[in-house]
Every structure is written in C-alpha cells, then in structure tokens.
Fold:
Amino acid sequence: MKDELNSIQVETLEKIQNAYTSKELQDIKVAVLGKKGSLTSVLRGMGKLSKEERPVVGELANKVRETISAEIDQKSNVLEEQAMEEQLKKEAIDVTLPGRPVQFGGPHLLTSIIEEIEDLFIGMGFEIKEGPEVETDYYNFEALNLPKNHPARDMQDTFYITNELLLRTHTSPVQARTMNQYKGTQAVKMICPGKVYRRDTDDATHSHQFTQIEGLYVDKDVRMSDLKGILDKFAKKMFGQDRKIRLRPSFFPFTEPSVEMDISCKVCNGAGCSVCKKTGWIEILGAGMVHPRVLKMAGYDPEVYTGFAFGMGPDRIAMLKYGIDDIRQFYTNDKRFLRQYHHAKGGIL
Ligand code: PHE
Structure:
C-alpha cells in the first residue's frame, strides 16, 4: 500500500508538472483526490490493514494528499499568472501610434465679422442690444414713421405672420424698442446685430434671410458731423486706413436727412472696375439723423435730443472683404466654404 501511495504521488506530480491549462489541472485533481480518485480508493482499502500499519499508512496518505494539493495550488497560480500575462500582451496599447486627427470647428464667417464690428463700436462707447426676430408691425414700421399703407413699406417685402406680427425686415425696430425703454430719460448709444428677413427671391446678391447691424446714438447735441466721423473711423478700421468714404443723399422714412455711405474701391483705387461697377465707389450702409417724429413717438423731445442711426449688412461687408461673390454661400452651410474662414479675425484658430 505504501508503494502504491508513493507511486501515486510520483505519477501525479509528474502529470501536474506537464499540465498546461487549468482544465487539465482540474482533471488531475478529480482523478486523484476526487470521490472516485485513485488516492481516495487506496484510502478506502485501509480497513483491511492491521492496527499497527493503519496509522503509518494513514500519515503517509495524508502527506501524499497534502503534497499533491499544494502542488496543484501552486501550479494553478502559475497557470493563472501566465494566462493574465498573455491577456495583457494581447490588449496592450501602443502609445507611440500616431493619433487620429481631430477636426476643430470655428465660428461662421458672419459671426467673426459681426464680432469684429461689435469690438470696433464697443471701443467707441456703444453698447450691444438685442431684439426679437418675430416683431410687431408697430416696432418694425409704425414706430419708425411708416404708418400702415405708407408706400415706403414696399421698400422691404415682408413675411407677415398675422396682420400685426411679422419677421423683422431690418434691425431698426431695436432702435425704437431701446428708446421706448428709456422714454426720453437718458442718452442712447447702441448697436444691434441680428438676423432679418425679406420676401426676396434668393440669388447671388439676395437672400430671404441675412444679417444687419443697427447703430443709434441719441443725446443732447449729436450732429451729422458726429455720424460722419464715426462712420469714417469704422470704414478705415474695417477696410484699411487708405479708404475714403462719401455720403450720398438718400431716403429712409425714419431719418431726415438720410444718406447712403460709399467707400472707395480698393481693387481699382477709385479708377473704376467691375467690382465697383466702374464708379470707383462701393455702397456700404444707410444712415441719417433720427427723424423728429421717431424721437417723439419713443418719448424723446426732438427740441432737446438729436441723434443719428445707421444700418449695415455684415453679409455684404464680408463679401467685399473676402471677395465672396454669392451671398447664398453663407446659408447653405458647405463646410468646405466655411472652413476657409475659421482664421478670419475674431476666429478661434
Ligand atoms: N433699416 C434700413 C434698411 O434696412 C437701414 C437704415 C438704418 C437706414 C438706420 C437708416 C438708418 O434699409
């Protein structure tokens, strides 16, 4: 019996040595130490032994069991470690591989232009105001000296929502709203950038949605020369110090007198070319002295307060500045077009 035990030990240890997987180890364990295992069946035969032999064989059997168990445990640890290492090797991340390129976004060119213009006017003491895009007929027209059925309403084809509600056709209602808010109690010096809408057929120079920036300066002694000075400064900062401006008489119901401002053409330096339609000048904005009736309607005494207003189109300014020949480019959101201008002044990259 002792021999049997010894040979079980020797054989089993060798098998353990040669095991390559936990499954094999488990099988060995069952085959030797399990209920029907070889060691177990030897122990079952102990009853046949003499009293003297029994404790000796018992002790040996226990030792064999312990040795085999310990060997299985140890080998099991080794196999687990190996498995873990193999897994880690498979899952290893190569940190030296080049990364995938990240696509950065950037502001829309119109946003950059608007921010650039805002900065210019903030530097001259103007504050930024906002107003609703769905506007009342009153603020869009009536408060600007355009009563119902006034023929000048036709200058701006309008998207009506109801008889009294519309999509604002210009940013001028924000002048009226701001003055109305202060009701003649204080000076106003503001600009208002925003979207405006007109029932135009879209083509290279028209879009049913575009942007405007309104300007308004009302105080006790504001003159036309202040308007000219500020617009001259704006034009030079925006388009270059060598630019000249000229004011031409025009008409807007909410300003009197009204003007249109041109800047000298940079392409031909005033000589006349296709960009300026051979005139040497490019039209940039409409402006004028706030009409006394508009001041009065908003609660300002036109005998005490005077002011100027202007309205310009960032779309047109961006087109001139960057040589873009189709306004629809701003609204069709072709990233290949937009991406070219992420570096424009005011951009984040
Ligand atoms: N609101 C005018 C337009 O859209 C522009 C303008 C604004 C003219 C302020 C004069 C003063 O055509």
In short: The chain has two domains: 2-90, 109-344. The first strand starts at residue 127 and ends at 128.
